[in-house]
Amino acid sequence: MSNKNTNAKNWKPSTLAIHGNGRLPKAHHAVSTPIMHTSNYYFDTADEVEDFMRAKGQGKVIREHEYARYGNPTQIETERKLAAIEGAERAVLYSSGMAAVLLAIMTFMKPGGHIIFTSDCYRQTRDFAINFLGKFGMDNSIVDPTAEAIEKAIKPNTNIIFTESPTNPYLRVLDIPAIVKVAKAKKVLTIIDATLATPYNIKPIEMGVDVVIHSATKYLGGHNDLMAGVCLGSNALMTDLYKMQRMMGATPGPLTCFLLERGLKTFGMRMEHHNKAGLAVAQMLEAHPKIEKVWYPALKSHPDHKLGMEQMKGFGSVISFLVKGGNKETRQFIDALELFLITPSLGGSESLVTQMWAMSFFDYSEEYRKNIGMVDNLVRLALGLEDVDDLIFDLKQALDKI
Ligand SMILES: *Cc1c(COP(=O)(O)O)cnc(C)c1O
Questions:
Q1: What confidence tens digit (pLDDT) does each residue in 122-149 have?
Q2: How far apart (Å, rounded) are the C-alpha atoms in residues 65 and 345?
Q3: N or C: at which end does the chain have fewer Cβ atoms within 10 angstroms?
Q4: Residue 122 alpha carbon to ligand 1 centre in Å
Q5: Cβ(98) to ligand 1 under 6 A?
Q6: Do 385 and 373 touch, CB atoms closer than 8 A?
Q7: Which domains does the chain have, with CATH numbers?
Q8: Are 349 and 317 in contact, with CB atoms under 8 Å apart?
């Protein structure tokens, strides 16, 4: 079987998302990766078991699979493609983005250690930090999403900096090289959840970040039809993560991996569309008389506009804004939308809308919500792949109904 991959190092994300780093043999010469719905993989002879186990102990792979919690063929192929797109040595796939986040933290945390998180971070990650880390003897600080605030929060026992960029919902862009510099000087591991950026718009590994995480449920899967997560980085770090992943059973199933690999085939085209649509809608909203304020890093009005333009290729299709008025006006607008589904998530083919406080922060006290910026008239859009003219028309007609 030929492995025609001599030019792979020059391939662009759209090509890598389809071919990985080159051609690998596939069962029955199938073009797509066949789905193997099996929980275990048999050996032909008793001796083969011993040979396999001995080789495994020496770090050699003489055959890929033995038990489905340890991996399946569609998973391996999808990991290979994700690593190629990200420019990482290795990827480890998980059954959800949160499984990737939590198992990365749990793999690298130390008793008596300290983790820094940024305030504008994914709700479940924040809740894990607040409610569970203490049980493992880990301390944490939740700080403003800036490199300066992170540097100030470093203590002698800090061993992980966990950031997101851009953050959600305010799309704060962090100065990743500045954070990496501080972290390397203090020998602190850097983990970045770059779900909102995707490897199409930013390459944190090239900037020196140790572990990149994506919720593949979002742009990587791209069709609002699967749950998965991925960690990417060096072989050494990913080997540690893989041991934890297979032990915990946070392995994605073969069908999920098939859908994710299929989604990746259009990754480049979809991101190009998301970047263009996001910009067009953000500009329309900013100029609209019924909108108070818009957060989208390509807009000059965004606090991290300059940094974002330097660091990122585009900003995807999540846009946050304040509707003029309060809860009532905001809901009139949301209910009048025809194309946008009221649901969380982002990065899929259908456009989605959420009133942030009610969807994701309902069970927090009003005071706490206001503190973290979850005001009544804050709306987040996640544009899908519909024609952008239709989306703009829909948004305008809904704003007219207020
Ligand atoms: C959705 C999301 C997650 C969690 O991913 P799941 O696949 O839903 O578990 C984590 N971080 C960010 C930034 C997300 O958007």
A1: 989 989 999 999 999 999 999 998 999 9
A2: 33
A3: N
A4: 7
A5: yes
A6: no
A7: 8-36+72-264 (3.40.640.10), 267-400 (3.90.1150.10)
A8: no
